[in-house]
Amino acid sequence: MKYSVLHLPLNHTKALIVAVLLFAVASPLTTERKTDRIIVHKHARTLDLMHAGQVIKTYKIALGSEPVGPKARQGDHRTPEGTYVIDNRNANSKFHRSLHISYPNAADRERARKLGISPGGDIFIHGLPNGYGFVGAAHRGRDWTDGCIAVTDQEIEEIWRAVDNGTPVEILP
Predict the structure, then answer these.
(1) Domains of the chain: which residue ranges?
(2) What is the pTM of this model?
(3) For residue range 75-84, what is the model confidence (pLDDT) as tens digits?
(4) Secondary structure of residue 126 in the 3-state scheme
(5) Cα 107 from chain centroid?
């Protein structure tokens, strides 16, 4: 009988690999409840969709390429920290769907004004660049956005349906 590197018979190893892969595939968002809050945990690289104080679903994310600390100015490649809202959506974005986050808020604008710099803007929750959906979850291997919050194309489709404009977004360090 042939054995694998796991010291299991090859047919058992194949079954184990298939089971692990099936378990690793994210389960779709099955609830009909609308999200009433989004919480992003930058350190954990997760985005939680919330309803009535309960997590509906958690997504793994990629952030801006300079993920530590709050966004301070245009071009710093940081993801903001603070409280915002989803204030617009773009089905025809250069990324697979995008939900605009209302950065900068009043505190961000005031801080930038005092420093004499532009706070920047155009912060989104979005899918992968158009034409790169095949990358899937591998995109999370490193932080790569200009300050946005990225998920897979399948995930942004779920989030798109679950989130209305006006939904609060809390981005934590």
Answers:
(1) 1-28, 31-172
(2) 0.82
(3) 999 999 999 9
(4) strand
(5) 23
Q: How many CA atoms lie within 13 A of 86 on its CB side?
A: 23
State the average pLDDT over residues 64-70. 93
The pLDDT value given to residue 20? 35
Residue 23 identity (one-letter amino acid): F
86 within 8 A of 71, measured Cβ to Cβ: no
Using CB atoms within 10 Å of the CB of residue 35, give its burial: 0 to 12 exposed, 13 to 18 middle, 19+ buried: buried
**Please, where are the H alpha helices in 25-126?**
106-115
CA-to-CA dists, residue 35 to 56, 57, 76, 144, angstroms: 8, 10, 30, 26
Residue 168 identity (one-letter amino acid): P
Asked if residue 66 lies in contact with residue 78, where contact means CB atoms within 8 angstroms, the answer is: yes
Sign of CA dihedral 51, 88, 149, 31: positive
Q: Does domain 31-172 have CATH number 2.40.440.10?
A: yes
pLDDT digits (tens, 9 = 90+) for 8-60: 455 554 544 433 333 344 555 655 679 999 999 999 999 999 999 999 999 99
Rounded CA-CA distance 92/31 in Å is 26
Kindly give the pairing relationship between strand 54-60 and strand 123-126: unpaired
Residue type, 7: H
Token code pair at residue 91: 């089905």
